[in-house]
Amino acid sequence: xxxxxxxxxxxxxxxxxxxxxxxxxxxxxxxxxxxxxxxxxxxxxxxxxxxxxxxxxxxxxxxxxxxxxxxxxxxxxxxxxxxxxxxxxxxxxxxxxxxxxxxxxxxxxxxxxxxxxxxxxxxxxxxxxxxxxxxxxxxxxxxxxxxxxxxxxxxxxxxxxxxxxxxxxxxxxxxxxxxxxxxxxxxxxxxxxxxxxxxxxxxxxxxxxxxxxxxxxxxxxxxxxxxxxxxxxxxxxxxxxxxxxxxxxxxxxxxxxxxxxxxxxxxxxxxxxxxxxxxxxxxxxxxxxxxxxxxxxxxxxxxxxxxxxxxxxxxxxxxxxxxxxxxxxxxxxxxxxxxxxxxxxxxxxxxxxxxxxxxxxxxxxxxxxxxxxxxxxxxxxxxxxxxxxxxxxxxxxxxxxxxxxxxxxxxxxxxxxxxxxxxxxxxxxxxxxxxxxxxxxxxxxxxxxxxxxxxxxxxxxxxxxxxxxxxxxxxxxxxxxxxxxxxxxxxxxxxxxxxxxxxxxxxxxxxxxxxxxxxxxxxxxxxxxxxxxxxxxxxxxxxxxxxxxxxxxxxxxxxxxxxxxxxxxxxxxxxxxxxxxxxxxxxxxxx
Length: 591
Fold this sequence. Notes:
Elements: H1 13-22, H2 24-47, H3 49-55, H4 69-87, H5 96-117, H6 131-136, H7 147-158, H8 160-177, H9 191-194, H10 219-255, H11 268-280, H12 286-310, H13 317-326, H14 335-350, E1 365-369, E2 381-384, E3 394-398, H15 411-418, H16 423-431, H17 438-442, H18 446-462, H19 469-493, H20 499-510, H21 514-526, H22 533-552, H23 558-566, H24 573-588
Parallel strand pairs: 1-3
Antiparallel strand pairs: 2-3
Helix pairs in contact: 2-3, 2-4, 4-5, 7-10, 8-10, 12-19, 14-15, 15-18, 15-19, 18-22, 19-20, 20-21, 22-24
């Protein structure tokens, strides 16, 4: 298992003596902190039963969350109470590891309070997903090992109609106040709802558990559970999806806002500035991020031109891209071919990990296709976390809807990003940390998580994964995509760009098919600031590594550096910088 905080400064003998002198005071502060963490976690488990199930806490496996403005306000007040309790604890009387816990807990609480002010809870659904898509994946995310598990599952099916109505009521309130998703991105999202409205419960994705039972369940119980499950789908699930579809088609989409910018929301400019600072965990303005993006686009384009020239396309990068896109060598004709290519890359990557990493996760990952009902409106690939109790692996979900956009020359970088040494390695390792408060195992700072995954794509150079220059061009293609995000996201939400201008900019600079570009731009529209995390996080990690290499010289060990970055879990970038600087000082001192 991963050791914790390898880059936190080791206490000197003097410090240890001071701790002994402080004695009871520090012990009391530590106890206060641990009690606070435990209380907040128990509150989270009770209020978020679906999340609780994913972490391996099975006490609420028959429950769905309660969704209403009243409950949002109540949860926000509890969040405020937790923060108030935190600041009464004397941070100076905590040891360095506890101070790190303190700072991260404080950041999470403060960001939650700030976000609540912008009433984002009134926009719980986008074209990319929401309760209606995550609920359809319930069979893959809950335990189904015995009769009690099945009864819990059926209880959740029976609760869906009310769950859907709660979301409808909340979104109606959003319509009244102007907190609503832009209309243009909602075109076609009916498919993600319609797919779950079936005449025969056997056709529902949620019927899957009743097709094959564990051997421990006898025939009589199987019949009873199947009948109860079918009834729940007919009388709760299908009516819930029907009501939600009617609401979306008749009320929500027609009344959705016409402007795509977050700045068009109530107090929207302040909201976007919050999105930028919260997502990047850096003190930067939208204009600064925009300028960084423009510089990165210029740099990456020059590197791509060099590779094109080496391959015989000097001063003709567009011609080189057309060659790659048209070549049968870099395309597949069936989803099965794509999955096989990915599997080979993933296994090849596994063999290169030990030379760059000392600490690796125990949990493996699998590969599966993005569900057909979701594929047209979602990303080319995404990662699904393992179960917190170790009963389910992580998964690399690959979109096979538009095979023409899945060019094989980009597949190596994409796979490194989503699996190892990217998302799976980082997230599974974090979930396996043993000597951290439990909330730290699931804390998610997007700039760290996505920044690491983009950094992992570049690690492919050190792993000899881009021995073919075409694949290295593919890596740069994906890096260009992330650099353009800095330009386009800030352009849309802060600088007055239209959706069409954003699409044109992406088309001009990324070589992505128009279908993929449109899906991406629509994602930035409904998820303001999130797309900034990738490049801003990667740039910070690269900056810190360069600093460590320069200062340490021969003492630099990349495996130790990666332990320093990863073995504290996901942290804000300012804390990551502090951790790395502390590690550098320790190495310089010979510790």
